[in-house]
């Protein structure tokens, strides 16, 4: 069978084993193709190694150096180095029952604050006197005589269902009188659900020949079902509810007629009686800057309030709909919070504000309360966080060192593990192939200049001092962070906890800046800018080094690209060139194989002719 051509051939008719001869002759020829394929596979594995290193660097960056990093893991966050804690006199250790929240942020400094709350900030709030209420209205003409003995209807009030049944005696007493029927129905409703403040919680009324069912404000009644034909006799539909629906029209909910006009904070609004309650609320909340309107379906009341607290956010309104139809009345006036901090009286528009790095949140009932807040640095928390930095940094160093410091293994004393050819794989089991290829992938970046360069930059940045500004500098060794003594550690760091703890007592701010300081000099990928390097903290330096490797234009990106990207890189270009050589070699071998088959085909033809002539001569000699 031909190895490089799909042409169907008939060979061996002359007794010559053409297939074996061609196969043997092609073995030497095909060794060049095998070598090209192995080289191409090694290139692909090298690209995989570079991309795996890129992923490790990006994972470290996103976990510890990015805006999206978890706050507790972010090496750039000042809060993780300052670790200010606040103790508040007057509050228990668990702050149970606190009416004020006092939290230091990353800019807070040590010190003590006396805070007295005079009043809290409030909104302008207006409640409606009018109450919207829904009802279940019957349709058609109601006739008491249509309801027969033992017929019933089920009414639910706030989820509690009761069956209202008319006995033969009831029907006889009503005697077909509509008012008598309504009175009897209401007696049964009151007996089933009771009263509230002297009024039945749910009641039936008749308007001409139509019935309607209503519930007191704060309650919801539902007509659910009944004996066959009873609901239809009453003009009700199963599932009808007295709940106010914001999709109902203003006419239905509030009884308005014609059009209504009003203004809120200078914005003019106009609605028709057919507009829904929901459309009114939505438009007001979208267009009345600084104010919002809501409806409480339980109480049936409307609320108009300022969007924010503070005297400057007071709400102004006008119009008959708001003043008369709704009957808005002020229940809370817009006002600023008033408090005294360390003897100085001050006001704030909001109940949430910051003073000298102290985040203050005043709660309902905090007026008249006084608190003493003391800030202290928690050195133990800072040390624990730095230990995390040392641990994660050393893991990254180990990862990088694993690439450039691992030599290629040898399959024997002289040869390295190389990619397997298809013929070599046929002689091995799946596990043997897997183990062999695992060895063949090792050490492909041994002594690689890019990987060594990244590790070298990381090691170098540890020794360089950071310009803190104002003529001050700081270095890691001053705080007990140094590289290890072992020559083969690859630049790992170690922490002297005692030295760091002692230094934090007098230089906590310097230490925070040493790690978190940002440079005013803009970053540019691959640009070695000494001014930027000198004025940025350790975390930003490390971030720059990773960006120089993995970002577009970076060393690793240029060399190997990233998984899933169509962007060209040195190795993708090399792989394309190698694919082209493999294609050309395959074409050459196909032509060579065809040449050998043609040559042997001619030989077989000649042999057949010779055999035919010999047979003829033999037969002629036999006749003589």
Structure description:
The protein is of the alpha+beta class and 624 residues long. It has 17 helices and 28 strands. A hairpin with a 2-residue loop joins strand 8 (195-196) and strand 9 (199-200). The two termini are 46 Å apart. Mean pLDDT is 86; it is low at 91-96.
Summed up, what is this model?
The protein is an alpha+beta fold and 624 residues long. The protein has a 5-stranded antiparallel β-sheet with strand order 1-24-3-20-21, with no helix packed on it. The protein has a 4-stranded antiparallel β-sheet with strand order 16-17-4-19.
- Percentage of residues in DSSP E strands: 15-25%
Helix content: 40-55%
- Total beta strand runs: 28
| Largest sheet geometry | 5 strands, antiparallel
Low-confidence stretches: 91-96
Strand sequence of the main sheet, in spatial order? 1-24-3-20-21
Question: With helices defined by DSSP (H or I, 4 residues minimum), what is the helix count?
Answer: 17
Which structural class is indicated by helix and strand composition? Answer: alpha+beta
Query: Shape, please?
Result: flat
N-C termini distance: 46 Å
Q: Report mean pLDDT, rounded to a whole number.
A: 86
């Amino acid at each position: 069978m031909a190895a490089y051509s799909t042409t169907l051939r008939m060979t061996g008719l002359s007794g010559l084993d053409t297939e074996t001869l061609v196969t043997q002759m092609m073995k030497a020829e095909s060794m060049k193709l095998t070598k090209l394929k192995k080289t191409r596979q090694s290139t692909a594995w090298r690209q995989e190694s570079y991309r795996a290193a890129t992923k490790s660097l990006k994972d470290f960056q996103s976990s510890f150096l990015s805006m999206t990093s978890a706050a507790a893991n972010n090496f750039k966050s000042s809060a993780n180095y300052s670790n200010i804690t606040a103790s508040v006199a007057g509050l228990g250790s668990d702050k149970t029952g606190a009416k004020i929240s006092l939290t230091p942020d990353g800019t807070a400094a040590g010190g003590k604050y006396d805070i007295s709350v005079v009043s809290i900030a409030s909104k302008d709030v207006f409640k409606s006197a009018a109450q919207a209420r829904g009802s279940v209205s019957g349709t058609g003409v109601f006739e008491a005589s249509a309801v027969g003995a033992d017929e019933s209807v089920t009414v639910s009030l706030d989820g509690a269902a009761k069956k209202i049944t008319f006995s033969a005696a009831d029907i006889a007493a009503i005697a077909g009188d509509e008012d008598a029927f309504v009175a009897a129905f209401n007696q049964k409703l009151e007996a089933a659900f009771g009263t509230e403040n002297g009024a039945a919680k749910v009641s039936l009324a008749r308007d001409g020949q139509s019935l309607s069912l209503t519930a007191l404000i704060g309650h919801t009644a539902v007509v659910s079902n009944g004996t066959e034909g009873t609901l239809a006799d009453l003009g009700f539909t199963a599932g009808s509810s007295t709940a106010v629906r914001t999709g109902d029209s203003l006419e239905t909910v509030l009884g308005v007629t014609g059009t209504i006009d009003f203004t809120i904070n200078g914005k003019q609004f106009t609605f028709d009686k057919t507009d829904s309650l929901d459309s009114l609320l939505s438009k007001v909340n979208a267009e009345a800057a600084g104010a919002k309107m809501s409806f409480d379906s339980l109480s049936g009341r409307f609320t108009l309030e300022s969007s924010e607290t503070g005297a400057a956010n007071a709400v102004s309104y006008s119009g008959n709909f708001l003043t008369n139809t709704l009957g808005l009345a002020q229940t809370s006036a817009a006002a600023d919070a008033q408090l005294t901090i360390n003897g100085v009286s001050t006001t704030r528009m909001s109940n949430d504000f910051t003073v000298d790095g102290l985040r203050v949140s005043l709660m309902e009932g905090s007026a008249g309360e006084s608190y003493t807040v003391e800030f202290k640095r928690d050195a133990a928390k800072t040390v624990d966080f730095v230990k995390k930095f040392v641990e994660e940094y050393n893991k990254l160093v180990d990862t990088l060192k694993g690439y450039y410091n691992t030599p290629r293994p040898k399959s024997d004393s002289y040869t390295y593990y190389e990619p397997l050819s298809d013929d070599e794989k046929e002689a091995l089991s799946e596990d043997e192939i897997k183990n062999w290829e695992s060895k063949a992938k090792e050490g492909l970046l041994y002594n690689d200049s890019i990987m060594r360069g990244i590790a070298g930059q990381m090691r170098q940045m540890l020794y360089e001092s950071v310009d803190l500004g104002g003529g001050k500098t700081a270095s890691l060794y001053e705080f007990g962070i140094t590289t290890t003594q072992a020559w083969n550690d690859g630049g790992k760091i170690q922490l002297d906890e005692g030295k760091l703890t002692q230094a934090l007592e007098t230089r906590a701010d310097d230490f925070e800046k040493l790690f978190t300081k940002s440079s005013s000099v803009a970053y540019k990928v691959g640009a070695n800018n000494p001014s930027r390097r000198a004025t940025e903290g350790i975390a930003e330096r490390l971030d720059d080094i990773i960006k120089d490797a993995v970002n577009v234009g970076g060393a690793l990106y240029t060399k190997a690209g990233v998984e899933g990207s169509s962007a060209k890189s040195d190795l993708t270009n090399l792989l394309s060139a190698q694919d082209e050589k493999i294609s050309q070699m395959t074409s050459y071998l196909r032509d060579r194989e065809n040449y050998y088959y043609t040559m042997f085909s001619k030989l077989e033809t000649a042999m057949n002719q010779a055999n035919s002539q010999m047979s003829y001569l033999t037969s002629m000699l036999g006749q003589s």
